[in-house]
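In this supplementary section we document a worked example of the pipeline. Step one takes a protein sequence of length 442 as its only input; no multiple sequence alignment statistics are reported here. Step two produces a three-dimensional model, which step three serialises into structure tokens for compact storage. The input and output of this example are shown verbatim.
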Amino acid sequence: MGGAVNESSDDPAAVPATAAARLRDILQIRFTPLFQGLPASALERISPHNPLKRLLKLVGYAGVRLLGNAVRSITNPNRLAGATWLYVVSPNNVDALRFVREGLPDAVFVAGQGKRLAQYANTVNRLSLRRKLTHYGQLQAVWRALRASEGPAAWRFFDLIFAAVGYYEEYRCELRRYRPRAVVFANDHNDDARALLLACRAEQIPTAYIQHASVSRWFPPLGFDLSLLEGRHALDTYRSCGPVAGHVSLVGMPKADAFIRRRNTEPRVRRVAIAASLLDPTDALLAALDVLLPALPELHFTFRPHPSDPRDFRALFGKRHPGLAYSDARSENVFAFLHRHDALIAADTSTHLEATLLNLVSLYFRFGHSRGLTDDYYGYVRHGLIDAVDSASELVERVAQLAVYKPDDVFRRATYYCATIATPHEGASEKLALDELVRWLG
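The serialised model returned by step three reads:
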């Protein structure tokens, strides 16, 4: 099944206007000062600065994704009709919602056709986007409306606008075809996830959201029928984003259950993890390693890139620092990785919270970043979860101090972020979340 979804309106001009407003909602994080102010190297991976490169990307998307999806058939491993859908946009989402799949008999993973899911590519059910290209008749009118409302950003991110067209319409068709019992999300701001959320509202399909990573004030307002958040920080942050819809329950961090009772108890730091994000410049990461490793030769350092980072850090750093170990984020669970270490050094990543929960000392260090909108993105420093270090020399000094003495109650700093810390429910967040879902589903 597929095809366009008709909008009911007596005014023909209202159709593109409605479609433009919908796309603005779907893409809203792309039009924030935060997104537009990302470092050039990070933004380049999402939307190239050079107009010709953007055009080539657009042509590639049209040829590989739009036409490719149109000619590929879909064979799903599970029955989708009447099931509880667990919508995923990344391997991390699959890992975060696995406990729901195991705990609800009718739950099935679903993702958009063509969505890259690494090791889960062949095990997740797919929602058809075969007729997505048939909705591009609205593109010109929609882009004009967005250009009027968003100004130069509509041209700068034309490739992202192009890619977002048709998701909503096709997802409405899939919802009509299968009529799922409910849709559970682990992501609330990616373009395709936003489109499915709006489609669920239009088709009156119940929606739930399970937070799987820390949130920021730049996220869209919380708009699900049920939201299971990790702690008070997430709720306060979402309230700053706009009105909070539906029922909210604070259940802690389900993905940490298997590790949270095996916290680090080492009295001194001997093993140091360095987690890099997509925003961290290569030269700045190398500069930090050039200072840290020679100054602290008795410590063991492990470098872990973001799972979607295309840089080959072994090749970039290997000759300079042959003793540096590496963790593959695509195959090693973040908690398993942290469990092997006593301290963490990173810039803006939710790994700080996960490290603190495991009683690692976590230090905030911006690798070459100038201070701006992304500074302390999650508010970890501001709310006392972690301490900031401003220079490589200070970083060496702090780590050297920790090599002599590491506090044994660091995890208590995370209480504002994780509601179950030091309560009878600590380590039982999966059960709390499942109980809430079962009650909600009736």
